[in-house]
Amino acid sequence: MCELMHVCMSQKLFGRFDVAKEPFKRDSNKVFVYYLGAGFCPWCAAERWSIIEALKHFGTWEELKSDRSAEKNEPFLNLPTYNFSGAKFKSDYVEFVGKEFQDRNFEDSDHFTDADNAIIDNYNLQGVIPFVFIGGKFIRIGSGPKPEQLVGLSHDDVKKQLASKDTNLAKAIEEEANYIAALIYQSLGQKVQVPEQIKQIASQVK
To answer: Which of 17, 60, 142, 160 has the highest count of CB atoms within 10 angstroms of its CB?
Structure first.
């Protein structure tokens, strides 16, 4: 696998984040954040909550539509989440691209460009989802929050828990969101204002 990907992980970070040995080069003055997932995927459903919360530190979401994961053929069903297809993230600091290759009904969704394929072929050759790629360097495969934590909840239930900050689900979403935000903050050269907790996490990145 290492020979095929030629970007073997060179370093383990906090959570389950890795550092790519060979960074992805992109012409942009913003930090590039890339997500690959699918509407049917329960792990994607969970990870999207953290991505959304993390990016709120750097800009604003538009046209972000609520959704649910698959209603069949997955171990956890109808989980409350969002859909990144058509969503826009406005920021002076972050360029976000979110691709859902199928919807919750297992129908093809987003179109994939040569740029998408270059990232996937080099950094996620097996196409495992969810896949998060930050700053052309930091890689996350899998979810922080567990999908089973969302079973039986509505979108409002999750939002209330996030506001309270004292449930296991809220803590899991926030922890993963802070990891993502810290890696964006580090990629920006620590030039923006973020909560102290995120700065402390970012200080662990060499």
So the answer is: 17
| The model's pTM | 0.92
Strands (E), the chain: 9-12, 17-20, 31-37, 60-62, 65-68, 80-83, 88-90, 94-100, 131-134, 138-141
| CA–CA dist 179, 202 (Å, integer) | 8
Q: Which of 190, 178, 201 is nearest to 54 (CA)?
A: 178
Tell me if the bond preceding 130 is cis, omega within 30° of 0.
yes
Boundaries of every domain in the chain: 2-202
Return the sign of the alpha-carbon dihedral for residues 82, 16, 146, 104: positive
The string of pLDDT tens digits covering residues 38-85 is: 999 999 999 999 999 999 999 999 999 999 999 999 999 999 999 999
